[in-house]
Amino acid sequence: MKKIFLFLIMASALSCGKKVSQENTSTTTATPKESQKEAVVGGDSDSHGCKASAGYTWSTLKKECIRVFENSTKLNHAEDGKTYSTVSYVIFDGNKAELFLDTQKESIILERKSEGDSWVNGDWQLIPWKGYVLKKGEKILYTGE
Q1: Residue 12: half-sphere exposure toward Cβ, Cα within 13 Å
Q2: If you average pLDDT over residues 39-46, what whole number do you get?
Q3: pTM listed for this prediction
């Protein structure tokens, strides 16, 4: 009697273990629709092929994907009593400058007429003074060195 009872317990335990392992494999197997929803590492290319996850963004001025935090000038928000956790950048190419502002989705191209002049586009003005001062209209928004 003890042998039969022991046999039933072991058989029951084995069948439960099998059922659990089958459930685990069935829940981890993704259907094609589910696997398409998963984010692919490095699969975040924009329309120009720039991978934001690797720090690249499209430069209209350079006509290539660049990392704006490399080989650029950092612009900090002007002192206005607020605390900011973001910065902006400007890159230069000849008499043109491209602004990558944390407050704008697209970059802004500025142009200057000659050496020593400010770069301008509409009411945006980048002034070379003790580093750089970026103004929009009469308001100083950013400074940098």
Answers
A1: 6
A2: 64
A3: 0.66
